[in-house]
Design goal:
Blueprint: H1 3-32, H2 37-43, E1 51-59, E2 64-69, E3 74-80, E4 85-90, E5 96-101, E6 106-111, E7 116-122, E8 127-132, E9 138-143, E10 148-153, E11 158-164, E12 169-174, E13 180-185, E14 190-195, E15 200-206, E16 211-216, E17 222-227, E18 232-237, E19 247-253, E20 258-263, E21 269-274, E22 279-284, E23 289-295, E24 300-305, E25 311-316, E26 321-326, E27 331-337, E28 342-347, E29 353-358, E30 363-369, E31 380-387, E32 392-401
Length: 406
């Protein structure tokens, strides 16, 4: 029924129609899960007073980080940081969060137990991204404005080296074994490979046009780099004791403007978000071939895969929605509306909640995955939308037990 037809009927039965519309709205709210209090008691178990679970969100236009308490799905704190925060990462070995401030050329260190900035580390020009080694001892920051990578000793909270790389490096990502740092140089269409121990460039490889996002296999044998300017993904073999030289294995054709990569935890498949093709490409990492491509939504920007390798969630920046793709079935199974211009996203440790950054709306949409009840059309429901700061652009989740508490 259109609003025009409702207006035509109002003189005859205004009250009856308004009652029907009210009932429909209530049913939509219940079936869609908008009344998140309905699920709160069973959805958010009590882990005890020592347990903490937070999401940290960088707000690029507010110069702050919002802390969301994931036990209650409420904003817990807003932390002032540097100018123009963008990249954010958590330390898996200690309760610290690291925030890259692009406008002030530094990194803020947040103590997760206190949720306060405890140190500020200066780097070089226009940093955007930070990655932390799995042993929690070092962090790597690509400085796009100064064509180098800053290496940070996280125990000393100081820069211990600045390594010259290519032009306009966007990302620096460290391999799981901690031996190699992969750097995408957008300005000269190259990838720099750093020896992490020696803190120097091991190889510089020409690849495709405008290399950006980086994914590294769990066994550290290969890296993949999106090239947004040429609609390709570069596959690169990484040197080790058996493979003496880094080298490009393949340039894999995908969709237009590939902007991000989501690797399955088992490393078998790599999902590429093709922003201007409204599609995803799934690369079989062992063969460097596209196994499947499918339309996913308007301007897909970011993706994340569940720990059991079964589901992929993709933010559709252009259609204000999140698509759910079943990897085993090879098809999209749901599309859920979220806030305006969704981009970054993250899963909670139990995999039951998806957190979506709505960059234009300035909030975080929380979607719950659960066993559907009677009459409910889907296993997903919108639980709540949490206001944060202006232009949220990065998110990381950290869970831990507070020391000294039971």
């Amino acid at each position: 029924m259109t609003w025009q037809s409702v207006n035509l009927l109002l003189p005859r039965s205004r009250l009856q129609i308004l009652k029907k519309l009210l009932i429909i709205l209530v049913l939509i709210a219940v079936l869609g899960g908008l009344g998140w209090w309905y699920f709160r008691e069973q959805a958010l178990p009590d882990y005890g007073p020592a347990y903490r679970e937070y999401a940290y969100v960088t707000n690029g236009k507010s110069n702050t980080v919002s802390v969301i308490d994931l036990r209650t799905l409420q904003l817990a704190k807003t932390i002032p940081v540097g100018v123009g925060p963008t990249g954010i990462a958590a330390n898996s070995k200690k309760n610290e969060i690291y925030v890259v401030n692009t406008g002030s050329n530094n990194v803020s260190v947040i103590d997760a137990e206190m949720n306060a900035v405890v140190a500020t580390i200066g780097v070089h020009g226009r940093p955007y991204f930070i990655d932390v080694a799995e042993d929690g001892k070092r962090a790597y920051v690509a400085n796009s404005g100064s064509a180098n990578v800053s290496i940070i000793d996280l125990e000393k909270r100081s820069v211990i080296g600045n390594v010259r790389v290519g032009v306009s490096p966007g990302l620096a990502r460290v391999s799981p074994d901690g031996t190699t740092v992969v750097v995408s140089n957008r300005g000269d269409n190259t990838v720099s490979l750093l020896d992490a121990k020696l803190m120097r460039v091991r190889s510089t490889l020409p690849v495709c046009q405008q290399p950006e996002d980086i994914a590294i296999l769990p066994d550290s044998s290969k890296t993949f780099v999106t090239c947004s300017g040429s609609g390709q993904v570069a596959s690169i073999a990484l040197a080790d004791s058996n493979q003496k030289n880094d080298h490009v294995l393949a340039l894999i054709d995908v969709g237009r403007t590939p902007v991000s990569l989501a690797l399955k935890p088992d490393g078998g498949e790599l999902i590429v978000c093709n922003f201007d093709s409204d599609s995803i490409s799934i690369i079989e990492t062992g063969h460097d071939e596209v196994g499947n491509s499918t339309l996913i939504g308007q301007h897909p920007s970011k993706g994340v895969v569940t720990l059991d390798n079964s589901r992929l969630y993709v933010t559709n920046f252009g259609s204000d929605s999140v698509a759910v793709y079943d990897i085993d079935m090879g098809r999209r199974i749901a599309t859920m509306p979220v806030g305006s211009r969704p981009d970054g996203l993250a899963l909670t440790p139990d995999q039951n909640y998806l957190l979506v950054l709505d960059t234009q709306a300035g909030d975080v949409t929380v979607i719950q995955k659960r066993k559907p009840r009677k009459l409910e059309p889907t296993e997903y429901s919108l639980m709540t939308m949490i206001p944060v700061g202006m232009q949220p652009n990065g998110i990381v989740v950290k869970s831990f037990m507070m020391p000294g508490k039971k």
